[in-house]
Amino acid sequence: MVEEKIVELYPEQEIRCPTHLSIGEEATAVGVCENLRQDDMVFGYHRSHAHYLAKGGNLKAFMAELYGKATGCSRGKGGSMHLIDISVNFLGTTPILGGTVPLAVGAALSSQMQGKDNIAVAFFGDAAAEEGIIHESLNFASLKKLPVLFVCENNLYSVQTPLSARQPEREIYLLGKAHAVDSYLADGYDALKVYEIAKKAVEKIRAGNGPIFLELLTYRWREHCGPNYDFELGYRNEVEFLKWKEKDPIKKLKEEMLEANILSNEEFEGMREEINREIEDAVSFAKDSPFPEKDELYSNVYSEQGHEK
Amino acid sequence: MKSNRIISYMEAVREGIDLCLEKYPSVFIIGPGVPDPKGVFGTTLNLVDKYGPGRVLDMPLSENGITGVCIGAALTGMRPIMVHQRMDFSLLAIDELINNAAKWHYMFGGWCEVPLVIRLIIGRGWGQGAQHSQNLQALYAHIPGLKVVMPTTPYDVKGLLISSIEDNNPIIFIEHRWLYNMCEHVPEAMYRVPIGKSKIVREGEDITIASTSYMTIESIKASRIIENLGISPEIVDIRTIKPLDTNLIIKSVKKTGRLLVIDSGWKSGGIAGEVIASVVEEAFDSFKSKPQRITLPDIPTPTSHSLTRHYYPTYVDIANKIATMAGMGTEKAELRKILKSKKYDTPSDIPHLSFTGPF
Ligand SMILES: Cc1ncc(C[n+]2csc(CCOP(=O)(O)OP(=O)(O)O)c2C)c(N)n1
């Protein structure tokens, strides 16, 4: 719903940064993050609005960041591709493929060195799995039995290039196995299934059994970057999209909940309204917030702080 | 009419690649999205239809590895062209580029050659931010064994690209996205523009401006304003930053006595400082005023357009700097009036008004 709002607002030309929407890919983010504690640490990538929100990131600060405002989560210095909310240990997203994956491994190393039981999670796409850094990260995490969960969201495309033009016919999760990491494949369009498998994974990792790799099959609805559909380009077709849309993970979850009598239609509509209000508030907040002052350009290049002596 | 054919920078790049693919069976082009329907901002569009997926290749997102693959192919008879849609992505491949491509010829006593072109696209604006807008030409120019080319005009980009593909050395070929829609006359034939030669794009008497890539366009805009106030700048488009050709700049400074160097990269350790040092070494006595530079401040790129407005220098900053260097007094008020007026206030984060993002 947040991103549907972005789709509506983007043409106003006030959100002036590259924006990669997760519409259609909600279940992976939610299914994994629902199992995390506040002190668990998450890193994301360029398509991470959903991860930020699912980890409990502040919606107003998120929206303001998209608008380049001083109140944004990165103070207007990051934009859609650089989201952070340290209050919930959402530790950053970047668009350099694979770039944050070893950072999650490093966060897990910290946890281990400090004798804590919080874990780290790295979200990344299927194309990022082609970077050497993924293997280096898996190898090290496996070697040191680090508490880190690798989550590869396989949406079948990298920009306009299909998986088949980039990787041989083998499942991505097998890459984890090659590094002796417990690895699983699951339907990323089934929120409950993601939740179940992530729950087991998180419990195992927290218990000190080392890293786990999850490949979750999913699908992006909109264009790679931006608010529109892109079927006219011809690299994928609408029939394919409609097949995935049919399986809409949110619709599916709603139906399952209705059936199980844990949700009524009225409650659902009530939630919708409440969320809509929250979104409207966030948009107003973003629009009404001031832009960063010129001086802000020069701040944060270096930290002014030092280690206590 | 054929002889007056006007095409864009983007089309000129594409044509240069096309002609080389046609002429040399050893040439191939590879990069993420090369055969896709957007064709790397149009520069590789439809080439796959003409030459097939065997020579117009997509690739896994494995920049370092595939760069090494290209070096290996180049050592053994092929002439690869590799392209990254943002220069930032080439950072994943600098090990192969700097440790292998740049060194192989020298390190093995000249037995082998690495005829490899790495096309890197740079840009500014639309909130691209810290990791999608870096102008890292100085980083590559620092490395012996690499040549670094930054063409500004459609004519030059085609000619320099062909020269680069025919060169037997690894070439870092840098294209600025804000140049892609610039149009001018470009001959259809295969022609070459020599690597390692700068060019005078505007003759003048009072001050020498030496600039790179897109900043040359901003320099030209600034000169158009400043010439109304009686100052005539001479503009040298540097074109190749490694090996750097300072001959024209030195000749020009001997005439004008003033030097302003403008680069799209950062200040510290940058191209502008390098140019100034090289010229001062040779022509110290010719200077009437201290040489100056306009660069990015030493700050990562922010995303908010309220910040990039102060981050990216434009023709306004250039005009002001020229005015100061030329010792203008009362005319400065006049300049301020011109700069404040009418058409000089497009948003600073888009190349032209019809641009609506997201790229
Ligand atoms: C190192 C690097 N190379 C290339 C790119 C350009 N790029 C940006 S997003 C993207 C697609 C990535 O696909 P995937 O990892 O599957 O994530 P998705 O966008 O499909 O969610 C590419 C190739 C990049 N950002 N970083």
How would the blueprint of this fold be written?
The complex is a heterodimer of chains A (309) and B (359).
Chain A: H1 2-9, H2 26-33, E1 41-44, H3 49-54, H4 59-66, E2 90-93, H5 101-113, E3 120-125, H6 132-144, E4 148-154, E5 157-158, E6 161-162, H7 174-178, E7 182-187, H8 191-206, E8 212-217, H9 238-246, H10 249-259, H11 265-288
Parallel strand pairs in A: 1-2, 1-3, 3-4, 4-8, 7-8
Antiparallel strand pairs in A: 5-6
Chain B: E1 6-8, H1 9-23, E2 27-30, H2 47-51, E3 56-57, H3 63-75, E4 79-84, H4 94-101, H5 104-107, E5 116-122, H6 137-141, E6 147-149, H7 154-166, E7 170-176, E8 183-185, E9 199-202, E10 207-211, H8 213-226, E11 233-237, E12 240-242, H9 247-256, E13 259-266, H10 271-283, E14 292-296, H11 305-311, H12 315-325, H13 331-340
Parallel strand pairs in B: 2-3, 2-4, 4-5, 5-7, 6-7, 10-11, 10-13, 13-14
Antiparallel strand pairs in B: 1-8, 6-12, 9-11
Helix pairs in contact in B: 1-7, 3-4, 8-12, 12-13
Bound molecules: thiamine diphosphate.
Thiamine diphosphate sits between chains A (46-47, 95-97, 125-128, 155, 157-159, 224) and B (32, 61, 63, 89, 92).
Structure description:
The complex is a heterodimer of chains A (309) and B (359). Chain A has one domain: Rossmann fold (3-Layer(aba) Sandwich). The N and C termini of chain A lie far apart (48 Å). Chain A has helices at residues 2-9, 26-33, 49-54, 59-66, 101-113, 132-144, 174-178, 191-206, 238-246, 249-259, 265-288; strands spanning 41-44, 90-93, 120-125, 148-154, 157-158, 161-162, 182-187, 212-217. Chain A has 11 helices and 8 strands. Helix content of chain A is 39%, strand content 12%. Chain A is an alpha/beta fold and 309 residues long. In chain A, strands 2-1-3-4-8-7 form a 6-stranded parallel sheet, sandwiched between helices. Chain B is an alpha/beta fold. Chain B folds into 2 domains: 6-185, Rossmann fold; 199-342, Rossmann fold (3-Layer(aba) Sandwich), CATH 3.40.50. In chain B, 36% of the residues lie in helices and 18% in strands. In chain B, the strands form 3 sheets. Chain B has a 7-stranded mixed sheet, sandwiched between helices. A 5-stranded mixed sheet of chain B has the order 9-11-10-13-14, sandwiched between helices. In chain B, strand 2 (27-30), helix 2 (47-51) and strand 3 (56-57) form a beta-alpha-beta unit. The mean pLDDT of chain B is 94. Chain A binds chain B through residues 10-11, 13, 16-19, 68-69, 72, 74, 76-82, 94-99, 127-128, 130-133, 158-161, 165-167, 225-226, 233-235, 291-292, 294, 296-298, 301, and chain B through 32-33, 36-38, 58-65, 88-89, 91-92, 126-132, 297-300, 302-307, 310-311, 349, 356-359. The complex binds thiamine diphosphate. Thiamine diphosphate sits between chains A (46-47, 95-97, 125-128, 155, 157-159, 224) and B (32, 61, 63, 89, 92).
